[in-house]
Amino acid sequence: MNYEIIGTTVPAVEIQLNRNEAIYSQRGGMTWQTDGIEMKTNAQGGIMKSLGRMFAGESIFMSTYTAMQDNARIAFATTVPGDIIPVNLGELPNGFMLQKGSFLCAEPSVNLSIAFTKRFSAGLFGGEGFILQKATGSGTVFLEADGDPIVRTLAPGEVLKVDTGNVVGFETSVSYEIETVKGLGNILLGGEGLFLTRLVGPGKVIIQTQNFGDFAGRILSLLPKNSN
User: Fold this and answer.
1) What is the distance between the alpha carbons of residues 140 and 103, in angstroms, rounded to a whole number?
2) What are the average pLDDT values for consecutive 10-residue runs of the chain, which has 228 residues?
3) How many angstroms separate the CA atoms of 134 and 177, rounded?
4) Has this prediction a pTM greater than 0.85?
5) What is the pLDDT of residues 46-61, one digit of tens each?
6) Does 132 reside within a domain?
7) Which residues, at least 6 apart from 104, have a Cβ–Cβ distance to it below 8 Å?
8) DSSP secondary-structure letter at 148?
9) In CATH, what number is assigned to the domain containing residue 130?
10) 226 is a domain residue
11) Which of 50, 180, 182, 185 is disulfide-compatible with 43, CB 3.0–4.6 A?
12) Which of 30, 28, 84 is nearest to 59 (CA)?
């Protein structure tokens, strides 16, 4: 499987498949394709895994696209302005944790399952939700980030504090916690919210420069209010 990430504002990953090669995504995730590709949609992994994806903010059903001939092409684009990050799970034997909404598509050798955070408080207050997704296997999974992706490799014990909702994913060796912003004045006047995501190394972390949910909320706040 060969692929190319094209475009800048709302990029797409275009994947070249030979006969019997496949790629899967959420239902409705495909942007364009050439002739020679067959699509099958089902509850991949069974009903329980499908319900888990729903709680993680993803589609219950997955669509698998299989090439019926060589050199067939298919593309998947981001849903908002941002970027696409390929993660080779062959280099991460313990898998990679994903926040809801960051999964774009993956090879069939990638298994996507739900994963619970170790700390209940992280699930209650973190922008990523109590149920995260865990990608394991030997293939490549493609993630989408809002704005620009920033990749950091944390040393053992190194701490990175991130505004809630700006985490794309991290290695399973990275611990994930939530801490409260200190100081009543900072909470009330700082404009950053009550909680920060605290990531502790070692391991790779991917963060995004924009949280589209917050961006959309700001746009809505500027719209004229209905006076009726």
Assistant:
1) 11
2) 94 97 89 96 63 57 94 95 95 90 93 70 49 89 95 96 88 86 49 71 94 65 67
3) 17
4) no
5) 555 555 555 555 567 8
6) yes
7) 13, 25, 29, 76, 78, 84, 142, 143, 144
8) -
9) 3.60.160.10
10) no
11) 50
12) 28
